[in-house]
Every structure is written in C-alpha cells, then in structure tokens.
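Contributing: when you submit paired examples, paste them exactly as shown. First protein:
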Amino acid sequence: MPRPSVRPGPCRRSWPGAWSRSSGPWSACSAKSRSIPLAQKIGERFAGRQRELGELKLKISGCINACGHHHIGHIGILGVDKHDEEWYQVEIGGNQGETHAGSVKASLGKAIGPSFARADVPDVVERLIECYLEHRDSEAERFIEVVHRLGHD
C-alpha cells in the first residue's frame, strides 16, 4: 500500500505513523484515515511558523494502540471512540528524553481535560501554542520547557 502524500508542516515533522494498514489487527478504528486529515488541518494552521514555534513535537495516535506515540509528544493527541463518535484526548508534556544537557528528561504527557470533538482539536492546539508563546521566557525556550516550568494545570 503506498504511503499517503502528506507534506510535513511545522508541527508534523516528527510524527511517526502506522502505515501498514488503515487499522491494525487490534484496532477498533481506522486510525490512519482519521488522524491524517486532522494532522493536515493542524499543519495548515501553523504553516510557515516553524521558526517562531521552535522545536514542537506534536504526535497523533488514531486509536488506543498508540502507534503515533502520542504519550511522548510535547502535545499528544489520542483518538477515542465515545458512543460510536470520534473524539480526541489531548495531552501535554510528553518527552522522549534529553536532547541536550540540562534539557527536560523523559516524561509521559498528561491529559489536559476531557476529550474534544474532532472539529475542535485544531483550536485546542492553537490555544496551547498561543499560551506557550505568551508565557515563554525567551524565543529560545521550547514548548516542552515551558510546560515543565509552569506545570500541566
């Protein structure tokens, strides 16, 4: 199966994906077909802002199998099924590990509240990024550093 053509935007460049099938053998949803359009909408919203945003690892898992490693994304998005409707849980603060001396250590993201409807997720991500830009100490301070300095609340 050929990989979908999705150009990486400033928030997508680190997203891994489960490309083997639309849904894995244990998946209850078609993770790829649901998460890619969402990723495209988020990427379009932040196109051309890579320099302003700095390092930002946004990861999407279309279902609970977590192929997209949402739990270690600075912003992680997990697709969930609620009464046969598509919703997304948003987490912040995940980090794979230190990228340079003194940086944030490995951590799992924490949910910021109840799940959000698919249509609301780009707005949620935008608000998180606006909050980051408002509260960072300098242009050099990364999203993950601001989250860990201020806390998840």
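Second protein:
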Amino acid sequence: MLNISTSAAAANAAYFAAVANAERRALSSYFDQHVIADEDHRYIAIDEGDIPSIDEPMTTYFPAWKADERSKITLRDVLEMSDGLKWNEDYEPDDLDASDVVQMVLKERDQLAYAASRPVAAPPGTVFNYSSGTSMLLSKVLEQATGSTPADY
C-alpha cells in the first residue's frame, strides 16, 4: 500500500491547486491510457482481444454496479475521467478529510473497494473530474481482462 504523510499531501496541495482542469485532463489522459494503450494511443488490450471494446460496460468488471446508476458507465467514460462518480481530488491542507484521494490512500485498507463504492454524482460522459479512484478502477479492468497486473502488463 502506498503511504504518504499528511505533510506530503499538504506540500502537494499548492501544486495541485495550481493545475487547471485542462492540464489535468491532458495528464490524466496520458497516464491512465498508458495503462491500457501504447505511445501511439492504440488500445493494446483491445487490439489483443482482452477487452472487447472501449465502449465495454464497466459492469463487466464491476458486476455489483448492475443494480444502480453506475450500470451506465463505460470503459470510455473511465478512460476520459468522465465516469460521473462522486470524487474530490483536492489536496487542500486545511481540509484533508474532505479529500477522497487522501481518504483512499491514507485511511482505506482496500483502495479499489473505496474507489468502486463511490456513488454517481453526474451522468456518465458529461463531466470531466480528475480522480485517482478512477485510475484504481482501470487497474482492475486491466488485471481482470488480461490476468496480469498493470505493472506486469
């Protein structure tokens, strides 16, 4: 489990506060897609037949989501960080308890379960929201689809 100190999170607060949503979108697209795509942005796991389509429902990998609003989320929504899940990525040192990323990393034993448990806050595909939790979801997709951890893939 990755551990960061509260002071480290606070030190990063100024940096993350200064990053505009457009920059976050570019960074998230680059880093998250590289888990599944190569430098030419070809979707390797899709090209190799491990994942049927970029529009694959996330319920394929999270069957419990079939019972609620999360059933409408696709892999494309997750890759584009527009899954609609409620997530607060803030690193505000005065309010670390409100940050989902701080909660997930510092306080949760099962980070993937925490990320997957987030409720829907917006219709999928409609709102960009940078989320470290979404990256956790992608790691499960890749591992379940390929049988390899993201590090080994």
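If you have annotations for the second protein, write them as plain sentences, like these:
Confidence is low (pLDDT under 50) at residues 1-35.
The longest helix spans residues 21-36.
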